[in-house]
Amino acid sequence: MRLVLVGPPGSGKGTQAKLIAEHFGIPAISTGDIFRRNVAGETDLGVQAKKFMDSGDYVPDSLTNAMVRERLAEADCEPGFLLDGYPRTIDQVDALDGMLSEQGRRLDAVVELVAPADEVVPRLLLRAETEGRADDTEDVVRRRLEVYAEQTEPLIDVYRKQGILLDVDGLGEIPEVADRIRAALEGVSR
């Protein structure tokens, strides 16, 4: 199963990614993990990415795509994978499609965790408080949600047109949401 998981900050993506990956026996891959691994390993790509990360800039698509390409070529991705945090731009969507096409593969599904801002803001504020993230104020959290909506909407439209988008209600207890995701994925052919 080759999957992408999208959803606004606070929708439970990280938690659900682990559960879905475990259920299907595939690795959950986040771009943050890929960046950290390359930086820690001082790979050529990691050294280049660190310069951007240290200055607070986004890592350019070209570097991100190269790191994702390398990660997806690893043996544990042979039976499939779940991407969390990638793709984030239309160019990354095209790059991912190209990577998979080269392997004679395609995405099986894109799961969108749907969660209204008024529901996730309290979650994020609670998380900020419990994890000591003093900079995650309500204004900052709401801006992050706006940026997510602006940047992700075009991706959602692309995947909807491809017929592989699955909208799943991201609200509720963790096991409930996991059950909804599994049920939505039951109908996906591999």
How is this structure best described in words?
With 190 residues, the protein is α/β, with parallel strands linked by helices. It is built from eight helices and five strands; from the N terminus they run βαβαααβαβααβα. It has helices spanning 13-24, 31-40, 44-54, 61-72, 90-102, 117-130, 138-162, 174-186, and strands at 2-6, 28-30, 81-84, 109-114, 165-169. The chain has a five-stranded parallel beta sheet. The radius of gyration is 17 Å and the shape is globular. The termini are close together.
Topology order in helix (H) and strand (E) letters: EHEHHHEHEHHEH
Largest sheet: 5 strands, parallel
The count of DSSP E runs of length 2 or more, i.e. the number of strands, is: 5
Rg from alpha-carbon coordinates: 17 Å
How many H/I helices?
8
The strand line-up of the biggest sheet is 2-3-1-4-5
Helicity range of the residues? Answer: 55-70%
Give the uncertain stretches in residue-range form. Answer: none
Derived structural class? alpha/beta
Q: Work out the strand percent.
A: 5-15%
Layout of helices and strands:
Layout: E1 2-6, H1 13-24, E2 28-30, H2 31-40, H3 44-54, H4 61-72, E3 81-84, H5 90-102, E4 109-114, H6 117-130, H7 138-162, E5 165-169, H8 174-186
Parallel strand pairs: 1-3, 1-4, 2-3, 4-5
Helix pairs in contact: 1-8, 2-3, 2-4, 3-4, 4-5, 6-7
